[in-house]
Amino acid sequence: MSGCLFCDILSGDKRSGIVYEDEHIAAFEDINPQAPVHVLVLPKRHYTGLNDAPAETSGRCIEAARRIASEKGIDNSGYRVVANCGSDGGQTVGHLHFHLLGGRRMKWPPG
């Protein structure tokens, strides 16, 4: 999809820090990390947000986040997976993505 930053990254135009990839999902390091581990996990197919994606797609993203958490060594200490939905939810890129955050103690409420 033209004009989508994440689609551009996935197409190779702006390939950056890929840490996981399979047929349906890709994940890369966030360029503005909010924790020692901050990875964006997203479907390769463009969906604007969580409301537009089939449950199977979200499930694949969550499973990928679990694998990455294990690879990054934060699966036992704990981590957070977040999907921001819409402008009031803090979504700044119109492509469904999940933030995998870990490597430090998370605060609550988040914001």
Q: Summed up, what is this model?
A:
The protein is α+β, with helices and mostly antiparallel strands.
Could you list the spans in which at least 5 consecutive residues all have pLDDT below 50? none
Q: What percentage of amino acids are in beta strands?
A: 15-25%
- Under the CATH scheme, the architecture is 2-Layer Sandwich
Largest sheet: 5 strands, antiparallel
Distance between the termini: 31 Å
Query: Average pLDDT, to the nearest integer?
Result: 93
Q: How many helical elements?
A: 2
- Overall structural class, as computed from helix and strand content, comes to alpha+beta
Q: Please state how the strands of the largest beta sheet are arranged side by side.
A: 1-2-3-5-4
Compute the CA-based radius of gyration. Answer: 13 Å
Number of strands: 5
**Elements, N to C (H/E):** HEEEHEE
Question: Number of domains in the coordinates?
Answer: 1
Which CATH class is shown? Alpha Beta
List the quaternary state of the chains: single chain
Q: Would you write up a description of this structure?
A:
This protein is of the alpha+beta class and 111 residues long. It has a single domain, classed as HIT-like (HIT family, subunit A), CATH 3.30.428. The protein has helices spanning 5-11, 55-71, and strands at residues 18-21, 25-29, 37-43, 79-82, 98-102. A 5-stranded antiparallel beta sheet has the order 1-2-3-5-4, covered by helices on one side. A hairpin with a 7-residue loop joins β2 and β3. The protein is globular and about 40 Å long.
